Amino acid sequence: MNIILRSAIWSILANPLRSLALATALASAVASVNFSASVVGGFSADLERLAFGGYATTLVVRHNGAVETRRGGPSLDDQARLAQELPNIESTAAWFIAQTSIRTDNETLLIPVFGATGDYRREVDAELIAGRWLNEQETGSLQRVCIVGAGLAYDLRHTELSLLDRTISLGGTSCKVVGVLDFAKTRPAGQFNQGIIAPFNTVHRYFTRSEDGTNVYPREASWLSFYMDDRVNMEDVRFKADRLMRNMAGIGYLKDSPYVFDNPSADLIEQVKQKTALSKLLTTMTTGTLIASLIGYAGIALAATASRTREIALRMAMGATRRTILLQIATEHSFIGVIASILGALVGFAVSALVAHLWEWPIKLSLIGTFSAIAIGLGVGLGVGILAAIKAVNTSPSLAAKT
User: Fold this and answer.
1) pTM for the full model?
2) Which domain holds residue 44?
3) Are strands 223-228 and 58-63 parallel, antiparallel or unpaired?
4) d(CA 188, CA 363)
5) Are 211 and 295 found together in one domain?
6) In a domain, 60, yes or no
7) Is the model's pLDDT at 209 over the cut of 60?
């Protein structure tokens, strides 16, 4: 084995141009796949965030309008029970929507008022451009303080700073503005652009009718949000939540549930379809890049090994066995493959980081994609080298010596 190892190293060093061509081809393949996977993964995550916000891993419980029930919508009591029973919950929030009117310089607008309690900021998904957020003490109180959405602030024809600490009238109820939001970063959070965010109990107290005009119970919510760990299976979470809510409501499994468990701002089925289609598209693009790069590497490896037909024939004429020659070529490709793969992975990471810095592209480094590209590259190179070696050792030494 030591002789084979020394022979493989000697062959690599004795033919630097051939070794460099093989290493460059494989390094380019790994680097291009690593870069493509990083860019594609980054854009995939960014598109998913823009389309779905945090709802991809959020359990949303709301009233099923197609089923008549005396319970109404989910309540704060349901929120506490689900938070206690469901595993892998990072935080929760409860929302109550009402409608009211507000007077601008030109017209009277009908706007939504969102009563919030809990970790509401994750769902808002927007930055403050002035003022501050409602704190935990305020969201659990009856204080008449509020945050104004970016679109509504524009309609009111006020600058962000001029709105701060200003008392506005919402259908006859006054509210002190403590913050002004920027426009939402995601589509689901866009519902807050034209609205007001106030404490949950305040909206219940001063806006006694829900968005659809029906009376509500004091602790009833329009929807409950449970922000789950990214690793959970959301189908399992929805099943457990449905079972718990049915038990609390006394609803059998043969009847339609009075609750639905999805995003109130987007259809869940459409979310799943869009995400699946996007994943298939990005996977196809990355696979195409990998195949194209490895074809180039395989071609160079095949040509490099085929060019050694004379050398292999002479070694066999001097007594070398087929097994020895095959092991030497396999060892050569393994050495070159390991070095080239490591260099290619580093180059791919470096280029990804450079592009992210210069052009502000979303980049998501994928170690799984990198190791997969390295493994496939090594396998293809090793397989092509051995096939070419088998062809060479099957050639008659006398015939090969004449070529």
Assistant:
1) 0.61
2) 2-50+272-402
3) antiparallel
4) 23
5) no
6) no
7) no
